Amino acid sequence: MGSREEIVAAAAKVMREQGYAHATTKAIAQAAGYSEALLYKHFKDKTEIFTSVLTERLPALGSTLDELMDTAGTSSDTPLAANLARLARITLSFYLESFPIAVSLFSSRELLATHRERVLSRDRGPDVPLVRVAEYLKEEARLGRIREDADLDAAASLLLGACFQYAFLASFEDREPSPKELDEWAERLAATLLVAVAS
């Protein structure tokens, strides 16, 4: 593992333990065993480190969506219910991992405003998963597996919102759900959403 990967891994650990607001670049560099100067050779600022943690160290929501988009409609098609359950499961894991890191952004309006400006300038805002899930559902609708009249933006919001709420409650309760519990909840979410949108 190179220095960049070690810095991202250290940042994920420090941000989980201290939250984004208190995870200084100095603390991240120390945890990685490098100087702050080396950290800045790889990253422009803490926001860039944070987005790297989200995309590289947390459950791969983006790559799962890429795979679902690539395989939608192929002859070896997985049932829509299974795709939705897989999507719900990875989303649950993503939010469970990212919630403790990101929640401290809301501790200060100034911190949130600064972070929002930097993230949006890089097209990495929290709306990206919502847009991507809606795009995936639109592809399924184009293939006839979802009703033409289904509100796909609302369906995407329902799925992601339910996963986010679950992560919030688990974090609030300081509870780490078992893989079996996450699998079962993902299947229940997928089955419920399927009733609303399936053709």
TrEMBL record:
Ranges of the DNA-binding region feature: 24-43
Keywords: DNA-binding
Keyword DNA-binding: yes
One example GO MF annotation: transcription cis-regulatory region binding
Gene3D superfamilies, per the entry: Tetracycline Repressor, domain 2
Source organism superkingdom: Bacteria
Record bears the keyword DNA-binding: yes
Domain HTH tetR-type: 1-61
Pfam family of the protein (one): TetR_N
Protein name per Swiss-Prot or TrEMBL: HTH tetR-type domain-containing protein
The species this protein was found in: Amycolatopsis japonica
